[in-house]
Design brief:
alpha+beta
Length: 147
């Protein structure tokens, strides 16, 4: 079965005000879409003028962890992601797994293969939480480039 990534918001990013970029998408709950979410993240940050490669990498890591958590633990057929970056390079990541469960910050042992994702989110994000079925976080991606 071929998976389709469906834009949730049909408004092209190019129409966003200078320094403000966003994306919204929905996809089936399959791990192959984590890389797509990372690429979309880099595109949104680029459109917002963020040039700091380390900051982009941190935001991509947070997206990867939250999207992966939604796919693995959400037990739903689809996942939705919204990402926005304002003119101060503040990024809001929202991932909806359509599940009633809540993510947990766990203490993973040295031999555990998983269990570190939400600890990374808690450590790297400015703030994070869960509202309804959506896990969200904010992160400062550094200064936006003058455009």
């Amino acid at each position: 079965m071929t998976s389709v990534i469906t834009p949730v918001d049909e408004t092209p990013n190019r129409r966003a005000p200078m320094g403000l970029a966003h994306a919204a998408m929905s996809f089936d709950a399959h791990p192959r879409h984590v890389e797509t979410a990372r690429r979309v993240t880099a595109d949104v940050l680029g459109e917002a003028g963020v040039r700091d490669r380390d900051a982009i990498g941190i935001v991509q890591l947070l997206v990867s962890e939250i999207v992966t958590n939604a796919i693995v633990h959400g037990h739903a057929d689809s996942v939705s992601m919204r990402l926005s970056c304002d003119d101060r390079a503040e990024v809001l990541i929202e991932v909806d797994d359509h599940s009633s469960g809540s993510p947990e910050v766990r203490e993973a042992g040295p031999e555990d293969e998983g269990g570190r994702g939400m600890r990374l989110v808690a450590h790297l994000a400015r703030d994070w939480g869960r509202k309804g079925t959506c896990t969200w976080c904010t992160v400062q991606a550094g200064p936006a480039a003058d455009g």
